[in-house]
Amino acid sequence: xxxxxxxxxxxxxxxxxxxxxxxxxxxxxxxxxxxxxxxxxxxxxxxxxxxxxxxxxxxxxxxxxxxxxxxxxxxxxxxxxxxxxxxxxxxxxxxxxxxxxxxxxxxxxxxxxxxxxxxxxxxxxxxxxxxxxxxxxxxxxxxxxxx
Length: 147
Known about the structure:
Pfam family, one: Phage_holin_3_6
Helix content: over 70%
Organism: Flexibacter flexilis DSM 6793
Protein name: Putative Holin-X, holin superfamily III
Structural class: mainly alpha
Transmembrane segments: 58-85, 91-111
Strand content: under 5%
Number of helices: 4
Radius of gyration: 35 Å
Shape: elongated
Keywords: Membrane, Transmembrane, Transmembrane helix
Number of domains: 1
Number of strands: 0
Distance between the termini: 66 Å
């Protein structure tokens, strides 16, 4: 009797051993750590993708804006020269074009805080983002359907 513990003690220890094996805390911690590392890596990849998409859209917008500004400048010079020809003057056409731009700028500054203008701008921006979210949702649904 000296070498063997009593029977109830052995049964209780066997229960704890099997419960410990079932939980296997080290394996659980390793799996949880791996899961968290993978989620973090996925978040980094998604963040990079979003940033690269935003930079691409910004570059495209800048190119379009540059071309638009150049077209506006050329059109303004042409209109000024044409008005100079019509009025038989060297500067009156350019003065009229400048006055149009100054008037447009003044009107924009005057009505920038007007509730109607602000409401229309806010509605346009919210519609743009709703359409963008709808397109992103449709694309993600299509990609999940193909997989």
